[in-house]
Write a structure and sequence with these properties.
Length: 214
Amino acid sequence: MKISVLGAGSWGTALAIVLSNNGHDVTLWEYKKEYVKGLIKQHENKVFLPGISIPQEITITHTLEQASNDQHMIVIAIPTQFVRSVLKKMKKFSFKNTTFVSVAKGIEKETLVTVNHIISDELDIDESNIAVLSGPSHAEEVSRKIPTAVVAAIVSPGASPSLSPGVAPSSSLICAVAVAVVIVALLALERSAWKFSVISKISSFSATIVTVGV
């Protein structure tokens, strides 16, 4: 599966590493050219994730076209206040067969909307193709495969099987972490129609899904 991660901060880098370790063809995009040169040369994010090696198999790029075209999944790990400006530059690309996953925190200051709505607004993506991945977790834990947990949410629970290749084998939702214990968490989002899936992953990278309707 071809997956791009937009944003080479600590969280974006950690997710790119685990997705690559799960056997996916991963592209990591960063907007700062000099920063990209350092990542390519050192294969380590010394600024945000020091001490963790970035697999040689990951393509690191500054080019949005390379990170956007022909991707099965695009993970948005850009700081929320910059998401819209980046997506505007991506309008010329086709995302007919692409699933988007937001891992960005917070809301946009000017509009007070969450990132999933920014994606839908700017790229005309149906909400059933936009998922949200959130903690409780830390990039440092995920990159080191320390037991942790995440919560994934999507408007249409029927879309979850199509997202499974983004995770490890035998999983049913997007998640790129190894989890040893179940941590049940509900996110208070803006729509009661949302379904929340709590993912527990054991060290063998299999998963148990608990879906809670609110």
